[in-house]
## 1
Amino acid sequence: MSPLKQTLVDINNAYIFFCSSIYLGMFWSLHLFWFPNYPSTLNLENYYDAIIPQTTLATKFFFITIPIMAVAIVIMLITEWKTKLKWVPILWAPGLLIPVVIQQAYIETINNEFIDGVTDEARLQELLQEWMYLNDLRWIILSIMWGVTMYFFIAKAKPRYSKNQT
């Protein structure tokens, strides 16, 4: 592979790691710092400001980055197809798709109910519990995928992979 092409492949793979790291940081922060406080601190008067502006910005951000990441994963699959590391982009297909499906099919419904305005405290707590559970599922999947991506880079740094051997 030419040096230029290899640099472009490296940038492509680094983008995947960049996105997985953003995911990792966001979901670990939610899990460790916000979720433990949500049930006891969020109420009908303050839940909206604690959730909706942030999720709206995250949705806009990931609306741009995830399709690019999907293309990058396809490029990684093509470039790794004849190597022992082809399982990394193959695993990324469901590793990216499942969290997106959870978001679009389930979390967006809850977000929309939050946006419409929850007027019952019991319903708010029910929605928060479901919202946190669904985001914790994504946290687990994306933590695993970050580990897979880190393994990829560690393996690629080893001499046995330096020439794209099978």
## 2
Amino acid sequence: MTAVPAARPRTVRAAVTAVLVPPAAWLAALGLSYVVQDFACSAYTSAGRVPPATAIGAVVVGLDVVLLALTLAAGVVAWQAYRHASTEHSPLPGFLGVLGMILSLAFAGGIVMIAVNPLVLEVCA
């Protein structure tokens, strides 16, 4: 029976981070989009002023773009962890790399769907 070679801790940490960042970024995009829209629209409406829907929408889309870039960067880190693990034949970073790439693509799609809402629907309806 051959022993499985141990992966370097840095590779494992990078792969774990690449798995955890996409869902956290999606959750942040979902929460921040709701909080920014709800808080800004409520504050302007309660003050008796018309909310600047264009500015609020731009802030929400800007936040989503930053979180999308973070999610895609995590996918690149996962891809690098997978490539590094395939040369060392380490199963854990390889698995985490593949999982990180899949999660990055899936949650990037979710962030894009969140970012499209202020572009298509009214922000303060």
